[in-house]
Amino acid sequence: MTQNQLGQMYALTVMTPIDPTRAQSVRDILADLPRRPSPFARLKAAHFARWVTVPDFVTDPSQPAPEHLPGPYLLFSVTFDGLLDAFLEQLTASLETELQAIYGCCVGAPDPARGEPLQDYLRHNQVQTGLFFSAYPDATVETVMDALGVRQRTIDFAIRAQGMHPNELLSAFRTEF
Amino acid sequence: MPNLDRADIQGDILEAYGNRYLHSSYVFLTVGDEGEGRAWLSERIPQVTTATRWQGPRPDSTFNVAVTHAGLPALGVPPRAVASFSDEFTEGMAARAPELGDVGPSAPAHWDRGLGTGDAHVLVTINALSDDARDAALEALREGLGPYVHLSVTLEQHAQMHSNAREHFGFADGFSQPAIEGVSEDSAVGEGVREKTGWRPLALGEFLLGHEDEESRTDRRARLPSAPDDPLGRNGTYMVWRKLHQDVALFRSTLREASASYGDGDEAKLMAKVVGRWPNGSPVTLWPEAPPAQFDARSPGANSFGYTDGDADGFGCPIGAHVRRSNPRDSLGFEGRLTFRHRIIRRGMPYGPPLPANAPGDDGEDRGLIFICFNASISRQFESIQRQWLNDGNIFHLGTDGDYLLGGDGGKMTVQGSRPFLLSPRAPFVSTRGGEYLFVPSITALGAIADGVAA
Q1: Quick one: A116 and A145 in the same domain?
Q2: Which residues of A lie inside 8 Å of B (Cβ-Cβ)?
Q3: pLDDT tens, B205-255?
Q4: B218–chain A Cβ distance below 8 A for any pair
Q5: Residue B308, C-beta contacts closer than 8 angstroms, at least 6 positions apart
Q6: Sheet strands (E) in chain A
Q7: Is the CB of A62 less than 8 angstroms away from the CB of B421?
Q8: In a 3-state reduction of DSSP, which class is residue B68?
Q9: Which chain A residue shows the shortest CA-CA distance from B400?
Q10: ∠ CA(A5), CA(A7), CA(A12), 5° rounding?
Q11: A162 and A75, same structural domain?
């Protein structure tokens, strides 16, 4: 597997330090984002995406010594179809308002946090990964949505066609599909 | 073996009072003055029924107390102690309605007055052997409230056992319960945890706070499960109270109509496939064609069954059947390790009159089930069952299909068979009329709240 890639999918992980005085602002902005639809729904190539605030490491009881982050971090994790550059362009164009508010609270981010400077900032803070999960790495979001549509049509048809005479079934099938 | 301080634990949690208590009344109170609330509570504590085993005849009625999150400050519990309760209890059931599937006709906006609004502070539960005993207990409750002008009854809900302990759809209910260490060890087979050496009961801390749970019992470094600060947490537990309306006429007519095209049996069999048990409680997975003439759901071993040996594909008990979803046992593989931490103790009771078997349609009466369960973690136990197993089908490879018996999500149900049968999506048979998340304090904790010294 190429780094960050599996099939036609790319996994982007970005960790950016949050200005400690603005950690609560980031949490508030994230909490206030709409859920249905999520702003991530505007990213047509994205399978899964999330922002997570990481205040510090948790010390496992079996760990010899506690480890700490120098300050709070923001994790951005997303899996999408295609390649990084095109995705970052789409991301910064589609979520301009949200990104500006969120990354405006991060240390070292461009001001204003948008456009190409923001793309460079995200690339700079990328964490490379050699392993990530994808349920169907060869299927694009479009393929998955189409397949779900076919699945629902098939279910609806199966319920409707239950108990039909074979000839009637054939005719109904041809009409539907 | 955990040390059970029965005199400190409220009754009906770990062991049911039993089917001889035919009547249950649930009285929600609003506490408008914390001093009055604590004085009233202080007077009532000697009356609270504990888990102490009865030596002589059982009492005519029992008396138990639980508190909602809004009830804690109303009784003067200090903010720091209030903050030590779990997040889901703090948010309350109404705030979590979308996650629980309480949407559309089940949404809090349509709930019975006084539920999900923050007005319900204290729940008094009375179980009684007879009509007279219930009336006397309720009268005594009202008299006891008399002097306290700032305590008022928000809602009274009465429920009554039907013959053979059947719920309104006609099925025996409530007899399959988790086996608990030090309490119900005899039923460990099928109701506990399967180890290489055999079955063992679940750790007490899964159902009672302040005791080792399934994590801390094996991992000595793990802390006891999260509980409210002392002295509130130990020997208390969280309670889920839900009023679930059942549309019996719709359930019957839907299954009657569907059974006309069901090739593998009659209406009774199709109903049993939807539920996963026959009306007498016998599991469909063991008796797929017809129920045994005699089946005692409470007899030893009556619930010692699984699904993977012989019924993995759901040809006996459908994979989406209600009881297989709500307690999948070994269905999810890994010898039950994905399911044993999501068990609840259930204490439900039907409300409203039964719909006669020959009723032509709905008679407009309000009827259903008062669903009650006890668990140490509402999110891990009750809510996980509701969200992952009943309202979604993904984990069972059933797509987005929810539980057909509850319904409302518009999903279908597949009755597996050599020729599968599909039940069409339809309006819900069950809708939520209200509910609250509650905390059932120990006797010690009730005393601490009443004395105003909690935390």
Answers
A1: no
A2: 61-62, 151, 155, 158-159, 162-163
A3: 999 999 999 998 887 777 788 899 999 999 999 999 999 999 999 999 999
A4: no
A5: B330, B331, B333
A6: 5-6, 9-17, 46-54, 73-81
A7: no
A8: strand
A9: A152
A10: 30
A11: no
Handedness of CA B406, B322, B92, B65 (dihedral sign): positive
Between chains, do A62 and B221 touch, taking CB under 8 Å as contact?
Answer: yes
Residues B38-65: tens digit of each pLDDT: 999 999 999 999 999 999 999 999 999 9
- Quickly state the pLDDT bin for A123 (edges 50, 70, 90): very high
Angle at B144 between CA B143 and CA B146, to 5 degrees: 60
**Between A61, A62, A163, which is nearest B261 by CB?**
A163
In percent, how much of chain B has pLDDT > 70? 99
Q: Which two tokens stand for residue B347?
A: 């204490």
Interchain proximity B261–A162, CB inside 8 Å: yes
Residue A78 maps to a domain: yes
User: Total structural domains in chain A?
Assistant: 2
Q: Is the pLDDT of residue B97 over 90?
A: yes
**Does some domain include residue A133?**
no
Distance in angstroms (rounded) separating the CA atoms of residues B188 and B202: 8
Residues 6+ apart with CB under 8 A from B221: A61, A62
Shared domain for A117 and A166, answered yes or no, is no
Confidence class for position B410, pLDDT limits 50, 70, 90: low
pLDDT at residue A158 greater than cutoff 90: yes
Is residue B116 within 8 A of residue B104, CB to CB? The reply is: no
Asked whether residue A135 is assigned to any structural domain, the reply reads no
What percentage of residues in chain B have a pLDDT greater than 90? 85
Best of A159, A160, A164, A165 to disrupt the B interface (most B CBs within 10 Å) is A159
What pLDDT, on the 0 to 100 scale, is given for residue B232? 95
Confidence of residue A47 (pLDDT cuts 50, 70, 90): very high
Give the pLDDT score at B455.
54
A151, A159, A163 ranked by CB distance to B424: nearest: A159
Listed residue (B345, B341, B294, B303) closest to B324, CA to CA = B303
Q: Would you say B432 and B103 are in contact if contact means Cβ atoms under 8 Å apart?
A: no
Residues B124, B126, B17, B405, Cα dihedral to 10° = -80
Q: Which helix (H) or strand (E) holds B199?
A: strand B198-200
Q: Are residues A170 and A87 in the same domain?
A: no
φ, ψ dihedrals at B191, nearest 5° = -120, 0
Q: Are residues A28 and A105 in the same domain?
A: yes
Residues A33 and A118 occupy one common structural domain: yes
- Please give the mean pLDDT across all residues of chain B: 94
pLDDT, one tens digit per residue, over B277-296 is 999 999 999 999 999 999 99
**Same domain, yes or no, for A99 and A162?**
no
**pTM summary value:** 0.90
**Residue A88: which domain range?**
5-124
Same domain for A154 and A115 = no
Can you give the CATH number for the domain in which A105 is found? Answer: 3.30.70.100
Task: Quote the CA–CA distance of B82 and B103 in Å, as a whole number.
Answer: 29
Do you know the residue count of chain A?
177
Q: Phi/psi zone of residue B370: left (φ > 0), alpha (ψ -120 to 50 degrees), beta?
A: beta
d(CA B437, CA B118): 11
Place of tokens 């297989």: B324
